[in-house]
Amino acid sequence: EHNLSVTGGTEKIDYYTSANFMRQEGLSRQAEDVLKRYTLTAKINATLAPWARINLSTRFIRKDYDRPRGLSGALFDNLTMNFWPIHPFRDPNGYIYGLGPEVQRIALGGYNRSQNDDIYMQGALVLEPIKGWATHFEANYRINNTESREEGLPFYNHDVAGNPTGGYDRNSYVSKSHVRTNYVNLNAYTEYARSFGDHNGKIMAGFQTEGLRQETDGYTAYGLVSTDYPWGDLTTNTDYNGNSKYPTVKGNFNRWVTAGFFGRLNYDFRGTYLAEVNLRYDGTSRFLRNDR
């Protein structure tokens, strides 16, 4: 893991920026299992005027993960159920030998490759034109893009002469999916505090909203022409017996929004007698239109 950061500033403005790279290997000895992460961060805080301050930050994170397609699900459960501790790992010809397909699927059954990008953006503006009266504006925005591609390659058992004798996974395929997510959160509120002798009061009112929009699409195509080029346009749409096996496609859309108004009133007398009233009114698109 490697890190680099730079920071500096003056009385009215300061900044911070950093970069990070990490590479981490998994436990598989039969196939590559590697996670790579890239991170960039930048922050800035500035005093625009004696009564105005602003804070901005952004972060980008990319994760590239390459793993065998068999390195998932109930892999370890199946290994413990299907193998004896003294079971040979390879036969005399050097082929992986086993009572189940778990190890063969890891070593020979293809890969799952995914890339996940996250972008976070945050901003805050504070205005205080009159002492004791401050107004806050806050915004958070997140973008996520996740793309994954999985190739399923056939693998076989072998007889004593080293000839293939049938396989656990005979069909070959390529599957690809893409998820796009946008999330936003907005928060604005104003508050005013004032004291009159032994009496102290504070009032606050604001508005908050958040929303998410997500789209998913993907496909699976069968019958790879070449295992060296596992792409959707290089498939025959057939299974290992030559029968038709048509592609499958998927796609969905999700969206929701919430909104809320809130307020609070505080009063105390000499810091001994306290009173507080809170109000909030919320709505959400998750319910039917007449019950939101």
Descriptive notes:
This protein has 292 residues and is mostly beta strands. Helix content is 5%, strand content 64%. It has 2 helices and 12 strands. The strands form 2 sheets. The chain has a 10-stranded antiparallel sheet with strand order 1-2-3-4-5-6-9-10-11-12. Strand 1 and strand 2 (13-25) form a beta hairpin. The longest helix has 8 residues, at 75-82. The protein starts with a strand and ends in an 8-residue tail after the last strand. The relative contact order is 0.10. The mean pLDDT is 92.
Short characterization:
This protein has 292 residues and is mainly beta. Helices cover 5% and strands 64% of the residues.
List the helices and strands and how they pair.
Elements: E1 2-9, E2 13-25, E3 34-49, E4 52-68, H1 75-82, H2 102-108, E5 111-130, E6 133-152, E7 155-158, E8 164-169, E9 173-196, E10 199-222, E11 248-269, E12 273-284
Antiparallel strand pairs: 1-2, 2-3, 3-4, 4-5, 5-6, 6-9, 7-8, 9-10, 10-11, 11-12
Uncertain segments of ≥5 residues (pLDDT<50)? none
Main sheet: strands, sense, barrel: 10 strands, antiparallel
Total of DSSP H or I helical runs spanning 4+ residues? 2
Radius of gyration, taken over Cα atoms and rounded to an integer in Å:
29 Å
CA(first)-CA(last) distance: 48 Å
Instruction: Please bin the fraction of helical residues.
Output: under 10%
Strands, count: 12
- Which structural class best describes the helix and strand composition? mainly beta
Query: For the residues shown, what is the average pLDDT?
Result: 92
Overall body shape:
elongated
Largest sheet, spatial ordering of strands? 1-2-3-4-5-6-9-10-11-12
Helix-strand string: EEEEHHEEEEEEEE
Indicate the proportion of strand residues: over 45%
